[in-house]
Amino acid sequence: MDKQIILKVKNLDAHFGTLHAVKNINLEYQEKSVTAIIGPSGCGKSTYIRCLNRIHEELPNSFVTGQVELKGQDIYAPEVDPVEIRRNIGMVFQKPTPFPGMSIYENTIIGLKLQGGHSKSELMDIAEASLKKAFLWEEVKDKLKKEGTSLSGGQQQRLCIARALAVNPPLLLMDEPTSALDPIATAKIEELIDELRKEYTVIIVTHNMQQASRIADYTSFFVSGDLIEHGKSELIFTNPTNKKTEDYITGRFG
To answer: What is the CA radius of gyration of the chain?
Structure first.
């Protein structure tokens, strides 16, 4: 059965003041897939994914034009609440960001508590399920009251993923989630992403091309805010159609 298109990006441009950081991007994302975004530093990768849940516009003098449709709804339509969008489109950042002063359990269910309407037992059930999905439950189940910041870097990053999953978003954005982690912690996150594709759509920015080729169904290659090439990862990495892509992958550029 063909997978549904969950996200459509149409004529998307992003600006910081006079800087045109992302230029006329048109892409579609299938449900239950992983897409990697690669490209040299400063090419607009992070800016682009921050447009997909309306974080980009929080920066001074920043604005976006074009459309981003999540399940058919334009998230930039005037009547749409950006806070609601960010609740539905999870985001995991480069540096793990557990909330200080909060326990592992509280960090996991903070989004649900803000939504309201859940009993204590429901919150506990969802916390356990989310921590299991993030491959963290076995490591923390006996210390849920300890601070989230007491965990190792790799565990903190998986806690942030559990926090994003707790509100059950259809889409999860990850901005270089393993760049601050050691190889063992990185391997765990990659294994986790491989598991997440069974239920979620994941878009991941990575500077690591080997990682992109290992974990992503599709890969997008950006240079200077332009989308140079997008396609199935196996083709992008073995038989790219654009000379710039080939040069970047073989290390002759970027």
So the answer is: 18
